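Appendix B, example 12.
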Amino acid sequence: MNVTQDAAGHGLDAGLVQQLYNHYCHLSYLSALAAVLLVGHALRRHRRLSRFRGPPLAAVSDVPHRLAMLGGECHLFYARANNKYGPIARVAPNILTTSSPAVWAHVNNTPGYKRSDWYYNAEADGARVLWS
């Protein structure tokens, strides 16, 4: 067994040191790959709706929208976004809001348009709700 001494005089097995080095090299490669994938995913999400203006952070993160949801103030968040950025505003990487009845009617009358599951499963006071 090849044993080396560290500065404190402790014996270290050279094979163990090499295994630890290899292990941490693999971890650093995996971490770098994960970072590249996360950045790529964020850029892809940003590009999909990039032609729509909105709060800068909303282009890459759901955080502002989620905070508004948790605070029960989505309606105010949407109104501020539409007042500042126009009748169609991006409020999250994959979420747009509109203040225009004409845009809303056009989107909802498009063949093949499927609403989110929450739309079809909404309930209030135990009764199903029909959104119109």
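The CA atoms of residues 50 and 59 lie 7 Å apart. Strands lie at 3-5, 11-13, 88-92, 95-98, 123-124, 127-128.
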